[in-house]
Design goal:
about 110 residues; mainly beta; Immunoglobulin-like; two-stranded antiparallel ribbon; about 20% strand
Length: about 110
């Protein structure tokens, strides 16, 4: 996985990943490799170890679930969220919870 790194920000002030200067040009759903180094009056440090980040966000909410009785089972179904967190970012799991109408489980 070679290739050249491109400098993101050339300023001497601190910045965060939420900075528009850092995130401009980032494509949703792509994995980026990054590294950094520090500079002072004596010169540049060595680069940090390389890190990776997937440009994605939290997915949107799924549709309201529907239920259907099938013998002794209840089939619960829903639609995948329209916003999955980015282009080509798959939903990897769902968390299904249940409770009684009065707020208890048993």
């Amino acid at each position: 996985m070679g290739g050249n790194f491109v400098e993101v920000v050339g300023y001497t002030t601190l910045y965060t990943l939420n900075s528009i200067l850092v995130t401009s040009g980032i494509q949703s759903g792509k994995t980026y490799r990054l590294r950094y180094r520090a500079h002072n009056s004596q010169g540049w440090s060595e680069y940090s170890p390389i890190g990776e980040i997937l440009a994605a966000t939290i997915p949107g909410a799924s549709s309201q679930p529907t239920t259907q009785v099938a013998g002794v089972n209840v089939v619960i179904s829903w639609e995948q969220p329209l916003l999955t967190g980015g282009n080509n970012v798959p939903i990897t799991k769902y968390d299904v919870e249940i409770r009684l109408l009065d707020g208890t489980f048993t």
